[in-house]
Amino acid sequence: MKNTARPPLTLRNAPAWLGVSVLWLLAQWPWWLQRTLGTVLGGLLFIVLPRRRRIAARNLKLCFPEHDPATRKQLLRAHFAALGVGVFEFARAWWGSITPMRRNVQIEGLAPVQAILASGRGVLLVSGHFTTLELCGRLLCDHLPVSGMYRAHDSAPMEWAVLRGRLRYASAMYTREHVLGTVRSLKRGGLLWYAPDQDMLGRDRVFAPFFGIAAGSITATHQLARLSGCAVVPFFHRREGGRYLIRLAPPLEDFPSLDPLADTSRVNAAIEAMVRAAPAQYLWIHQRFKRRPSGEPSLY
């Protein structure tokens, strides 16, 4: 767990505090207005973020070679619209009311997870970086005692504000460096949400297939399951119009194995299935295939 003491306002961090204040204010606006403005914001981001637009377009070409250019361009536009709405969803999850979303959420697979927890065994919810992850995570917290693992923000005001917001609904939050705490929580029968689908530096990394491409992938899911004995449950979530669909899939069978690569490949396959179910809502602006196996050229 991290210290949640509020950092003081200084001249150096004043812009960050201003940004947090603006996001907090936006989180209070009516949901119908946020959805409308989110689409507009997505169109603006499409224009003002050319580098991220190129990364997303490249990712879509790599992952959906079967689509023609016009279809991928349409998907790219839809992705930026989802990003714009996602900004408001994140802010609302942290600091606003989710009453409108609670009226339009469908959750599948709760009972089996509740039964696992009742038996005293921990559960690791595995998902990907989608624009809906924060809001759907908060919606799930209405039914399950979810804790989370995350990457700390560089900005102290943003880190404080987001952590404070998340702790309104999450049972605990752990940084990626606090592995011991997460293992202890899982061993005690806790429920942890984690998204292991970004290409990050670290020695516990393998190249596992993702959309048929060797992708740098951390083996954390394998390691956490091995160390704690927890069940690993794929956590699907997406937005459909004004509805949110959440599905907790059956636990991965015979997991973990003795092979980190095989286990990580299974996790990537589960996340790929999530992406195919809601392709516009995945975080395509991230360089998922940044690091390549030795001798292979850059994909960007």
Write a structural description.
The chain has 300 residues and is α/β, with parallel strands linked by helices. Helices cover 47% and strands 16% of the residues. The chain contains eleven helices and nine strands. It has a seven-stranded mixed sheet, sandwiched between helices. The chain has a two-stranded antiparallel ribbon with strand order 6-7. Helix 1 runs parallel beside helix 8, helix 2 (31-48) packs across helix 4 and helix 10 packs across helix 11. The longest helix has 27 residues, at 69-95. The protein is globular and about 50 Å long. The relative contact order is 0.16.
Topology:
Blueprint: H1 14-27, H2 31-48, H3 50-63, H4 69-95, H5 99-102, E1 105-108, H6 110-118, E2 123-126, H7 133-140, E3 146-150, H8 156-166, E4 173-175, H9 179-187, E5 191-194, E6 205-210, E7 213-218, H10 220-228, E8 231-240, E9 243-248, H11 260-277
Parallel strand pairs: 1-9, 2-5, 2-8, 3-4, 3-5
Antiparallel strand pairs: 6-7, 8-9
Computed over alpha carbons, the radius of gyration is 19 Å
Strand content: 15-25%
For the largest beta-sheet, the strand count, sense and barrel status come to:
7 strands, mixed
**Widest sheet: strand ordering:** 1-9-8-2-5-3-4
Task: Please provide the ordered H/E string of secondary-structure elements.
Answer: HHHHHEHEHEHEHEEEHEEH
**Number of domains as seen in the coordinates:** 1
Q: How many strands in all? A: 9
Structural class: alpha/beta
Gap from first CA to last CA: 37 Å
Helix content: 40-55%
The number of helices is 11
Mean pLDDT across every amino acid position = 93
Show unreliable segments.
none
Shape: globular
